[in-house]
Design brief:
By secondary structure, the chain is mainly β. The chain has one helix spanning 5-23; strands spanning 34-37, 40-44, 49-60, 63-75, 85-99, 102-112, 117-128, 131-141, 147-150, 172-174.
Length: 181
């Protein structure tokens, strides 16, 4: 990944400003089972995947992901006495990932269960309290609790005219400051 000096500075400043809660956040229990609910599920056993559609909610420990559609890739076969294990989840449409004290929104997300990394792409917005960061791509390492955001990725959501716009590859944000008397 290639970044210019300014976006790296912005990302570093953003992470430092959020460092207390973001980096000190409790480790995610990625060994916890993954529960889901959706309006419909289509099992594609030969492809080792399940497609969840309509108001999809995925929960693992203290993390929740909601989306219009989630494709779950799994290993193993669905047979009596055996249970497949989720290896990857691809979410599309109105994706929201919530963790304690954080909410992230985007157009697409991938949760790689093996590496324990959630990558969100397209019109990303990360909110923690009164602090907000926007960018093109957000990566959350669930083992370390570290989040990085950069300006790359998919363009912003469609404008009222129906066109998709590409941002200038920048990260923007707003940090709250303590009130003085």
């Amino acid at each position: 990944m290639i970044r210019t000096a300014l976006p790296s500075f912005v990302v570093t400043a953003a992470l430092l400003a959020l460092a207390g809660p973001v980096l000190a956040q409790a480790r995610h229990d990625s060994n916890a089972p993954i529960d889901f609910s959706a309006n419909a599920i289509e099992l594609q056993d030969k492809a080792n995947r399940a497609v969840l559609t309509g108001g999809v909610t995925i929960r693992q420990s203290t993390m929740t992901m909601t989306a219009d559609r989630v494709t779950v890739a799994y290993t193993g076969q669905v047979t009596a006495g055996a249970s497949p294990q989720a290896s990857r989840m691809d979410a599309t449409g109105n994706v929201v990932v919530t963790r304690p004290d954080q909410t992230a929104r985007s157009r697409f997300a991938v949760y790689d269960v093996g590496t324990r990394i959630v990558t969100m792409i397209g019109g990303v917005r990360l909110t923690q309290g009164a602090n907000t960061l926007t960018g093109g791509r957000l990566s959350i390492n669930l083992d370390t609790g570290r989040a990085t955001i950069d300006g790359s990725g998919v363009g912003s959501p469609a404008t009222p005219g129906g066109t998709v716009t590409q941002g200038g590859g920048r990260v923007t944000g707003r940090f709250s400051v303590p009130k003085r008397n």
